[in-house]
Amino acid sequence: MTDSNEGKVALVTGAGSGIGRATAATLLAHGYRVVLVGRRQEPLAALAAEAAARGENALAVVCDVTDPVAVTDLFDTVRRRFGRLDVLFNNAGRNGPPVEIDELDVDVWRNIVDVNLTGVFLCTRAAFGLMKSQTPRGGRVINNGSISAHAPRPYSIAYTATKHAITGLTKSVSLDGRKHDIVCGQIDIGNAATEMAERMARGVPQANGELAAEPLMDVQHVADAVLHMAELPLSANVQFMTIMASKMPYVGRG
Q: Which of 29, 71, 212, 239 is the most buried (most CB within 10 A)?
């Protein structure tokens, strides 16, 4: 643990697996009290139990981030339990089936928008209200963007549209938070080795129509990058960071 983080509170959505789990574990190891948020109780409880065995302070809360009432209850719980929030990592997200736009079901579109965009709005909205009223005031919001916030993959219209929207949300919160000492940054991730990215190693469609396997990077590198963003003083901010597998087809894509 690092003494500088002792007592700081972080909330991670999508904490039950992948990037969220790795980041939550890393924050816990560096002295943060961490609220673990996700839709499934079992993986959250397992991570909280592992943390407790190491003397770390984790609170598991099942929450659907697309539900405004549930999100309000979540942040009320944070306020009652810890009295403040220093870092929000908006990580929860989902992808859709790799189909052309005319084949994408409207309900699937709406669900992806709800999870990837509305969920981030609801959590950021609640965090903003808490951060500007707490003492000492202020805090940090970190949004999980994507390489797709810059360049789309084939057949990813819903995911890509939401990640472009996250960039606008990040900029707006960064601007509106200035007078409240609330900073907001975005981490755009390419091919971290998680369950969600397993298909990359098997082969995914490329812009030229080919199917090709893509390299992956250790998810711990992402967690360490989020930790770096989180540990900055509020007088400094990583506005946008791109972290990716070095040889993935991003620069020069298309």
A: 71
CA-angle at 251, arms to 246 and 254, nearest 5°:
130
What is the residue extent of each domain of the chain?
3-244
Reduce the DSSP state of residue 243 to 3 states and report it: strand
> What pLDDT, on a 0 to 100 scale, did the predictor assign at position 3?
47
CA distance 221 to 217: 8
CATH code: domain 3-244 is 3.40.50.720
Choice among 32, 155, 159, 250 that is catalytic? 159
Contact at 8 Å (CB) between 44 and 15? yes
Tokens of 143: 């949004």
Are 99 and 153 within 8 A, CB to CB?
no
Q: What is the pLDDT of residues 5-64, one digit of tens each?
A: 778 999 999 999 999 999 999 999 999 999 999 999 999 999 999 999 999 999 999 999
d(CA 78, CA 49): 19
Task: Place 163 in a pLDDT band, splitting at 50, 70 and 90.
Answer: very high
Catalytic site residue 159?
Answer: yes
